[in-house]
Amino acid sequence: MTTKEQLNDNIPQHLAIIMDGNGRWAKKKGLFRVAGHESGTKSVREVVEGCAEIGVKYLTLYAFSTENWNRPKLEVQTLMKLLVSSLKKELKTLHENNIKLATIGNIEALPQKAQKELNEVIEKTKDNTHMTLTLALSYGSREELIKTIQNISIKVKNDLLSPHLINEAVINEHLYTKNLPDVDFLIRTSGEERISNFLLWQIAYAELYFTEILWPDFRKSDLFEAILNYQKRERRFGKTSEQLG
Ligand code: IPE
Ligand code: IPE
Ligand code: MG
Fold first, then answer.
1. Residues 138-197: pLDDT tens digits?
2. Counting ligands in written order, which one lies closest to the CA of residue 135?
3. Which residue's CA is the closest to the ligand 2 atom numbered 9?
């Protein structure tokens, strides 16, 4: 069991998590997939709490991808219902812990009820400063990049921007993640070692961590273990080890 006392001050500023394995967790127990999603909400609570305790400033959770719309209708409906009920349940805790809620993704594609609930929580927590919890909902990195290119092109066409002035900062400003720093550490649960269209631009120099643990089994100690692993790494950003001093 890894505890937060084992960690040093080198806490990732921006942690992103691909919460995967709910379906397999349920199947293993002979339950319906949705039971896995329900159970996964407990892991979300643990991870949000754990991150707030150790001083992660930005936590971004991949909750629903653009591709997940292709799942069976009933599963999609249940996920959306679960989103609404979790937001209702967690609003107080988020607010009491000074956590600000944000979203990335094509939020307009979500059911009205989910949008309304999200807006309420975002509005209520907008001045909170301890941590920003961002939910990636109906999020796909390629869609985000397409929108970014479209919006930049419109500015160029209207003479508001000259093509040679397009740089990393300009691109960052047009992404859903414009208010977030680059990802420092990316965790994916369930043993899959892929990115599944998540934050492709933003993870350019992130450290990646894959664990076999299925998301509904992921606990605070697993989070701390992952961060302990992060702390043992040397992030060189293209330089040599000697240059880092
Ligand atoms: C992650 O668990 C939750 C979502 C993608 C919404 P899965 O539902 O993908 O679980 P597995 O991968 O089928 O086990
Ligand atoms: C990625 O998980 C999306 C989320 C965790 C929300 P998936 O289960 O949808 O990814 P693939 O299909 O296995 O790549
Ligand atoms: Mg999956």
1. 999 999 999 999 999 999 999 999 999 999 999 999 999 999 999 999 999 999 999 999
2. 2
3. 68
